[in-house]
Write a structure and sequence with these properties.
This protein is mainly beta. Helices cover about 15% and strands about 35% of the residues. It has one helix and nine strands. The strands form two sheets. A six-stranded parallel beta barrel has the order 4-7-6-9-5-8.
């Protein structure tokens, strides 16, 4: 009985820390709360009330991002704006929802 209780506790705690799901075909991220956000489009950097938290990395990124100045329509293309964003992000150094690498070409989900 103790082993069964132990296993149930382990499974329950693992579901609390489930990673966000990235949909490569739709170029979206779905968070644990069920909300889905695009990984392309107009992006606003905020300090609070973010849609997703982002960590910048140099390798093994979830998404390779290209900064563009207009028409961010392809997966991984981000146009940074200060109003009317498609998604609001907060840069963090740990416990990020997603890790990104900035590239000059060929953006997307590796």
């Amino acid at each position: 009985m103790k082993w069964l209780l132990f296993i149930v506790c382990i499974l329950a705690s693992a579901s609390l820390f489930a990673a966000p799901k990235i949909n490569k075909e739709k170029c979206t991220i779905t968070l644990d709360n069920g909300k889905t956000f695009p990984l392309y489009g107009k992006v606003e950097i905020v300090e609070s009330l973010e849609d997703i938290s982002v960590k910048i990395v140099n390798s093994l990124a979830d998404v390779e991002v290209e900064k563009v100045t207009s028409l961010p329509s392809k997966c991984g293309q981000w146009e940074f704006v200060t109003s009317l964003p498609d998604i609001r992000i907060k840069f963090v150094s740990s416990l990020a929802d997603i890790e990104v690498k900035f590239v000059n070409s060929l953006p997307g989900i590796p």
